[in-house]
Amino acid sequence: MTALIQFIVLKRRDKWVVKSKDLERIFSVRREAVDAAIRFANDSGKEGNPGVVLFQKSKTKFEKIWTYGESPYPPARSDLPMVSRTPEPEKLADTLG
């Protein structure tokens, strides 16, 4: 079985980034980054290198969002899991009052 190429969506400062091997693209909106990552993974799969899209929730935790050959393309919004991030500790304190 061929190893899946990982396309990781993560937040860096106030921007959203899609990273994979030598690829790095920056977006201002999370939805655009996720859509682009899925498109990159799908294109990679068509070229014989199946891709998977992961959402980075923390430094060590990732959530699988989309997989070439398993998930529909293009995905309906309802097909994608709701990706949420736990607020950073200082921001959590702000939300608690």
Could you explain the architecture of this structure?
It is a single chain. With 97 residues, the protein is an alpha+beta fold. It has one domain. 26% of the residues lie in helices and 32% in strands. The chain has helices at 30-46, 89-96; strands at 5-12, 15-20, 23-27, 51-56, 62-67. Strands 3-2-1-4-5 form a five-stranded mixed β-sheet, covered by helices on one side. β1 (5-12) and β2 (15-20) form a beta hairpin. The termini are far apart. The relative contact order is 0.18.
Termini separation comes to: 51 Å
User: How is the main sheet built?
Assistant: 5 strands, mixed
Compute the number of strand runs: 5
Q: In percent, how helical is the residue content?
A: 25-40%
Poorly predicted runs are 86-97
Query: Judging from the principal axes of the Cα atoms, what is the shape?
Result: globular
C-alpha Rg (nearest Å): 14 Å
Contiguous helical run count: 2
What would you say about this model in short?
With 97 residues, the chain is an alpha+beta fold. It has helices at 30-46, 89-96; strands spanning 5-12, 15-20, 23-27, 51-56, 62-67.
Which SSEs are present, and which pair or pack?
Blueprint (H helix, E strand, L loop, with lengths): L4 E8 L2 E6 L2 E5 L2 H17 L4 E6 L5 E6 L21 H8 L1
Parallel strand pairs: 1-4
Antiparallel strand pairs: 1-2, 2-3, 4-5
Task: List key phrases describing it.
alpha+beta; five-stranded mixed beta sheet
